[in-house]
Amino acid sequence: MKKFILKKEEDTRGVSYSIDYEKELNDPQFEAVSHKEGPALVIAGAGTGKTRTLIYRVARLIEQGVAPGNILLLTFTRRAAREMLERAGRVLDQRCSKVNGGTFHYYCSRLLHRYAERMGFPENFTILDSSDAIEVIQLLRTELNAAESGKRFPRKNTIYNMLSSAANKQLGLHEIVDSQYPQFREHIDKIEQIAQAYSAYKKKSHVMDFDDLLVQTRDMLRQHKDICQQVSAENRYVMIDEYQDTNALQAELAGLFTWGHNNIMAVGDDAQSIYAFRGADHKNIMEFPNLFRNTRIIKLEENYRSTQRILDLANRLLEQAKDKYDKRLFTNREEGDLPALIKAPDERDQSRFISQMILTMREQGKELREMAVLFRNGRDSFELELELNRKKIPFIKYGGVKFAEAAHIKDVLAHLKVLVNPADAISWNRVLTLLEGIGPKTAADLVAWLTSAQNPYAMDGMQRVSGKYKKQLDSLSMLLTDLKHKDFTTSEIVEHVVNYYRSFCEKRFDDHPKRVKDLETFVGLAQNFTDLDQILNDLSLDPIEQSAVDFESTVEDEAPLVLSTIHSAKGLEWSQVFLIQCLDGILPSGYSIDDADSLDEELRLMYVACTRAADNLYISYPVLQNNTYGEYFSNPSRFIADIGEKELEPWVLVEERDDQQALPPNDAPALPE
DNA sequence: GGGTTGCAAACAGAG
DNA sequence: TTTGCAACCC
C-alpha cells in the first residue's frame, strides 16, 4: 500500500531523481533542463539536442512534483508533440503523456471551446479550413462582381493569403497590399469589401478560420482577466519549440498563457526560420528577451547529429546570407564523406539513380527508415514516386496534399459539418451541388433558406423552391434527419454518409475505386473518436498525410522510406538524406528571386535540408527539365554554384550496359556495391 | 436565366 | 491537377 507524504511542491532540495540528468546531458543542456522559474531562451543550432533538452526538462519538472497537466508543450505539429511526449515517457514514465501538448492552433481551439459560452459564441462552432475559406472568398468575389473590369484582380488564393498575412502580422489589409502586393493597390477598396463580407460570413455561419483561432483567443485573454488568470495558473510551465517560426501574434499569446509568472521557455534557431509566409520573422526570436524581462539565454552549439563535412557545407551555405548569423556548427564526430552533388541528364534519370542507391543501401543492411528524400515543393517528388512504385519501394510522403483536402473526403466531411453546425453555408453548398441539376445559383437559394430554417434537416416547406430536385432532396433529408435524431455512434454516422455518397463518388471521379477505398479507411478511422465535433476539429488541425492512408492499407513489416517537403522535415533527421530538384527557380523558388529577404529564407530552407543528414548527404539536379510544353535546360541552384569541390563533390551519372551507376570523377570513394 | 461542358492557363510552403 | 472563362444546351 502506498502512503502519502506531504511535500511542498516548490521544494526540490529533497527530490531524488530517477534520471542522472547531469551525466546524460552536456553543460548548457543541463542548464536549460534544470532551469526552473522565469523566462528562458534556448538558442539551439541544428542537431544540438534541442528535442532531447525539452524532453528531459519535462521529465525533470515532473520528477520535482509538478503535475503533468500544469505543463504546456507547444510544438509546430501535433506529430512533433506526440513523438516528444512518447520519448519523454520512455525516459521517465507514463505521467509524461498527460502533459498538455500540441500546436498553438490546437490549444487555442480547445480554450475557445471551453469558454465559448462565456464569450457568447456557439460552442458547436466549426473550423473553416483553408480550402473552405478560399471557397467562401470565391463566392464573395463573384457576388461582389469584383473582377469585372478586365483588369487583373487577385485570385481567390491570393485574397486568402492577404487576409491571413494581415491577421498573422497584425497589420491592416492596406499595409499588406501596399507592401506585398503592390500590383493590386488599385483594387484595395474591393479587397476590403471582400474582407468585411468574409468576416460577416464567418460570424453568421458559426465558423472560425485558422487565424481566428489565434486572434479570438488573444482577444479573449486580453479582455477577460479572470479567464487569463485561470489559464496561466493552469500552465505553470510553458515550453515553445521552433520559436523562430512563431509570429508576433503567437508571441503575444505565449505571454498571455504565462501571464503573471512568465515561466516560459522558448527553444529555436534563427538560422532555421522558414515560415515567413505564415507571418514569422526570423528576427522575432531575438526579440524574446525584450518581450520577457530578465530572460536567461542559453546556447546549445555542439552538434551531435552530422559529420563535420556535412556541417562544413551547411556553414558554407549560411555564409552566403545577406543577413549574417554568428553561428558555426561544429561536432566531435568524424570527418565523414564529402556531400555529393549529382548531375543527372534528366528527371527520370535522377529518380532512377536515387531509387537505385536506396536499393543498394538496403541490400547492404541499411533500413529504409534511415533514409529520406527531401524537396522544395510537394510536386517535385511525383516523378520519383512513380519510380519507387515501379521498384516496389514502400514510402510515405509528408507535405503536399492532405487526406482531408482530397475532394472525395471533403464531400463526406461537408455532410458531417452540416450535422454539427447547420449554419455552415459553405458545407451546405458542397452537399447540395453534388445533386444532379443543382449548380451554384440554385444551391445559393437553397442554402439561404436552410441556414435560417427551424429544422433544416427536414427540408419541409422547401418543395416550392425545389420542384424538380425533390426526389434527391428527399433522400438527403432522410439521411440527415436519421443521423441527427437516431442514436448512432460516430463511426456509424460516417458509415451512413459514406454509403449515401458512394454513388456520387462513382459518378464524379474516374479513379473511384481508389477513392472508395479511402472512404472505407475514413470509416475505420472514425472509430477512434467519440464525437463528431472532435473528428472535424482533429482532421482540420492535425491533417493526416494522404499517403499515410495508402500505407496503412499495404502494411508491410518494413518501415517505409520518407519523402518530405523541406518544410515538413523540420526537426527530423536521417542517416542518409537526398535533396532532389536542387534547381534555380525551384530552390530558391522562382517567387523569391526578386527579393533579398525571401532569397535568404530560401537559403535557410536549403540549410535546414542539409542539416537533416547525419552521415551522408546527396544533392541532385537534372540538367534537362520537362514540363507540358517541352524540354529545356535548367541551372543548378545558385546556392551551390560557388561551392568548391572540396566541400561538395561532383558526381556524374554514367550509363552502363544494363543498369546505371554513379561514378565519382576521379578516384574518390566509389558507390557502395 | 442557369447549368454543363470543353479548352487554355497556372500551379508553394502549413496549421 | 485544378481553375477561369466562354461557348453551348435546357
In short:
The protein has 27 helices and 19 strands. The chain is of the alpha/beta class and 673 residues long. The structure holds a DNA duplex (15 and 10 nucleotides).
Average pLDDT for all residues: 87
Largest sheet features: 9 strands, mixed
Q: According to CATH, what is the class of the largest domain?
A: Alpha Beta
| Helical content (DSSP H or I, runs of 4+) | 40-55%
According to DSSP, the number of beta strands is 19
The backbone outline, from C-alpha atoms, is globular
Name the CATH superfamily classification of the largest domain: P-loop containing nucleotide triphosphate hydrolases
Number of domains: 4
**Measured on Cα atoms, how large is the radius of gyration?**
27 Å
Distance between the termini: 61 Å
- Which residue ranges are poorly predicted, with pLDDT under 50 across at least 5 consecutive positions? 664-673
Could you tell me the strand content as a percent range?
5-15%
Count of DSSP-assigned helices:
27
CATH topology (fold) name of the largest domain = Rossmann fold
Q: Tell me the CATH architecture of the largest domain.
A: 3-Layer(aba) Sandwich
The secondary-structure class comes to alpha/beta
